[in-house]
Amino acid sequence: MLVLRTVFLWLAFAVLLFLELNILPELYLRVSAFMRLIPSALLLAWFVIYIFNKDKSQLSKRAPKAFVIWLSVLKTVANLAIVSGAVMRILHYPYSQLLLVSGIGFLALWSSVLAYYSELKSDFNPDIIDAVEDDES
């Protein structure tokens, strides 16, 4: 599910970037209402999967320590860009849309790297077996 969430973020980022840069304006005028709904639907699907799906994934041991710190900084920058872009959007400041789009792009990058370096946690815990054997004796 982590990969599916990453795909949703990248698609939302691509469509928002397409809308922000105004590529192919004649196509934009024909499908503008539909194009405005696509990122919202993708981000809503990402949010629902993020909230209701509890992945049993963890960062792999092969990821270096500095990389884990870099990943933490990247997520913080993404969250700050999204929140400040939303506040600026409410206050009608210029370039707020660009800040929101870049924040979603940073979050998509973070999710991609996390999906690449993550592995599933196993449910096997050898300490449980030892505890059961201790109780029997």
SSE layout and pairings?
Blueprint: H1 2-21, H2 25-30, H3 32-52, E1 57-59, H4 65-90, H5 96-117, E2 118-120, H6 126-136
Antiparallel strand pairs: 1-2
Helix pairs in contact: 1-3, 1-5, 4-5
* DSSP, total strands: 2
Q: What is the alpha-carbon Rg in Å?
A: 20 Å
One letter per element, helices H and strands E, the order comes to HHHEHHEH
Number of structural units classed as domains? 1
Which residue ranges are poorly predicted, with pLDDT under 50 across at least 5 consecutive positions?
none
- Integer average pLDDT: 79
How much helix, percentage-wise, in residues? over 70%
Biggest sheet, spatial arrangement of strands = 1-2
- C-alpha end-to-end distance: 43 Å
**Anisotropy-based shape:** globular
How many helices?
Answer: 6
The description of the largest β-sheet is: 2 strands, antiparallel
State the gist of this model:
The chain has helices at residues 2-21, 25-30, 32-52, 65-90, 96-117, 126-136; strands at residues 57-59, 118-120. With 137 residues, it is mainly α.
Structural account:
The termini are far apart. About 75% of the residues lie in helices and about 5% in strands. The mean pLDDT is about 80. It has six helices and two strands, in the order αααβααβα. Helix 1 runs antiparallel to helix 3 and helix 4 runs antiparallel to helix 5. With about 140 residues, the chain is mainly α. It is globular, with a radius of gyration of 20 Å. It has one domain.
Which labels suit this protein?
mainly alpha; 6 helices; two-stranded antiparallel sheet; 137 residues
